[in-house]
Design brief:
Blueprint lengths: L3 H14 L4 E10 L9 E5 L4 E3 L5 H16 L12 E5 L3 H6 L7 E8 L3 H12 L4 E6 L5 E5 L7 E2 L3 E6 L4 E5 L3 H12 L3 E5 L3 H4 L8 E3 L3 H8 L5 E5 L4 H11 L6 E4 L3 H15 L3 H5 L1 E2 L11 H16 L10 H10 L1
Parallel strand pairs: 10-11, 10-13, 11-12, 13-14, 14-15
Antiparallel strand pairs: 1-2, 1-5, 2-3, 4-5, 6-7, 6-9, 8-9
Helix pairs in contact: 1-4, 5-11, 7-8
């Protein structure tokens, strides 16, 4: 599944190419709880079509009603060459929060850009086509948007005269082993917006792979991890159940910036794995502390799709900065059940 930001930007470019009035709304600030994080984008066309989201739906409806009526009133006038963007705030009062479906105390601020230049949007999309990070800068005085390559992921920045939002590689996941569990996890991860690669050096296993959208790699796991160039938006999970493959991948992955490195297996196998990595590969205590395993949130999963669901739940929690309670992790949860 394609990155949602790219889908939104592509839809917006196509509407503007067709001569339609349109806007781009970006979440630039939030206070309290909010439905969507800073940097989330939404595009709205004069026909009422919406791509992306900035809330659970109510704010989208309000924007649509507000601007479609405005565009209708201005129908007799030519499109402006460029208009200054505006900031719009939702949820300041309790009544507004209730009306727009915001959590109690939640407030969000949007930057609304009017009729973005289709040529600039096309240039942005071309810059993103190669998989790099691109910083888009919007001038608050006239709405002019420019972009440049960004060396690393950055948070959205609001300055006195501009707003800068970085677009680029979605979160990436490298899975070691191409078995049935990997197929389910890859499918769920793709659906959740991850770019997925699967390393499977065993030809007989590769021959049965059935998940479109995931890149299938035939090399050895350590080489795959090195080529993957894991960064702070990366996940590496060993799922082959073969120590000769999983250990090679983990050895390299634990030395990267990947925000999640883990391995499947029983509690006993994971203890043995940690001991091997420390004794034979000289990993430090700090590097070993980053290894998650047995991976997943404990939900009593038994089948491959349930196990994949539990793994992805933990990955998403870590990505979103949510600390999973210790007793909800697979190993301690099973220990508690056995002690009961």
């Amino acid at each position: 599944m394609e990155n949602l930001d790219l889908l939104v930007l592509r839809e917006l470019r196509d509407w503007r190419r067709a001569g339609q009035r349109a806007l781009l709304a970006t979440v630039v600030r939030t206070w309290g709880s909010s439905p969507r994080p800073v940097g989330s984008i939404l595009a709205l066309s004069e026909t009422g079509r919406i791509a992306g989201s900035v809330s659970g739906g109510c704010i989208e409806d309000d924007l649509s009603d507000r601007y479609r009526q405005r565009w209708k009133d201005e129908q007799a006038h030519p499109l402006p060459a460029r208009a200054a963007p505006v900031f719009v705030t939702y949820g300041v009062s309790a009544d507004e929060a209730h009306r727009f479906g915001l959590p109690c105390g939640g407030t969000l601020e949007l930057l609304v850009e009017h009729d973005p230049d289709p040529a600039a949007l096309d240039a942005l999309l071309q810059g993103l086509a190669g998989g790099g990070l691109v910083r888009r800068r919007v001038d608050l005085a006239d709405g002019r948007a420019t972009h440049e390559a960004a060396p690393q992921p950055e948070e959205l920045r609001v300055a006195d005269d501009h707003v800068a939002n970085t677009f680029g590689p979605r979160y990436r996941m490298l899975l070691i082993g191409g078995g049935q569990l990997t197929e389910y996890l890859a499918t769920m991860a793709l659906f959740s917006g991850f770019e997925v690669a699967v390393c499977e050096p065993r030809e007989e296993v590769r021959a049965t792979w059935r998940v479109d959208g995931a890149t299938l790699l035939a090399g050895m796991p350590d080489d795959a991890v090195l080529a993957f160039r894991a960064d702070r938006r990366s996940v590496v999970i060993a799922l082959s159940h073969d120590p000769k493959l999983d250990d090679l991948a983990l050895l390299e992955a634990l030395r990267t910036e990947a925000f999640y490195v883990g391995a499947i297996g029983s509690r006993r196998n994971n203890d043995a794995r940690r001991q091997r990595l420390q004794e034979h590969f000289d990993l430090t205590a700090a590097e070993l502390a980053r290894l998650r395993g047995p991976v997943g949130v404990y939900i009593g999963s038994k089948t491959p799709p349930e196990i994949a669901l539990s793994i992805l739940a933990e990955v998403v929690a870590v990505k979103n900065g949510v600390v999973v309670p210790h007793d909800m992790l697979v190993a301690p949860a099973k220990d508690l059940r056995e002690a009961a």
